[in-house]
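Annotated sample (chain length 273).
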Amino acid sequence: MTKYVKYVDVTKCDGCRACMVACKNWNDLPAEPTDFLGSVQSHPKTTADTWNVLQYIEHENSKGGLDYLFRHSSCFHCTDAACEKVCPENAISYTKFGSVVIDQDKCVGCGYCVQNCPFEVISLKEYKDKHGKEYRKAHKCTMCTDRLDQGMQPACVTTCHTGAMEFGSREAMIQKAEKRVREIKGRYPNAMVYNPPGVGGTHTIYVLAERPSVYGLPENPKVPTSAVLWKDYAQPIGKAMIGATTMAVVGAFVANKLFSKKAEHEDGGEGHE
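Output written by the structure step:
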């Protein structure tokens, strides 16, 4: 089955923030007041009500000049997602497009996904039920999976006027990214494709002008060992143990009933002698 990728070329981004507006509009996300950050960046990072953020970075390049770097920041939709591994309710899953989504009906707001995301793009939102009781739900970018189901592209991609973002098959987008890096190496010696293997690759890949750390990204993100142990070992073993325990309980119950009936029958027989 074809997997899809959102391609982001930061060297073409002009910081217009149209992607943020489109995301808010399509997903009906509320406005979120923030403190003034002293730059064009409106939010310090993604939140439960702001699923993508335009980051603004002032960077001194290798030639001593000052570069103004922009980066569209949202969920990476990892192929091997830590959030999916640590969710105890199986509320996080992969779609046929490769996007990673959260089932709000199953989410219990435990926060494990927030704690284990290597890119820190998931947040919890506070709610109150009709009785005033507080509860939480995890939220993040869905890669507009509802739009993909209708044959459309993510809202952020369709509104990008500089061509900094595209959406297509994984193979085509990776080839495009690699070609673009070769084209800009003269201007940006540290240019690279950011598609971290430690999380199985991502479904949002970047053409970066500088090293990942310049953009606040981990150089080599990996799924936490604890998440791997939990999902791939502890949970299956735990389920097997629960199954074995259940069978043991059922077996004991049945055996107890049988022995009880046998004892009653023997006692009854003795009483007739």
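Annotation: Strands lie at 4-9, 53-60, 66-73, 92-94, 100-102, 123-128, 134-139, 165-169, 192-194, 204-208.
Annotation: Residues 246-255, 257-266, 268-273 have pLDDT under 50 and may be disordered.
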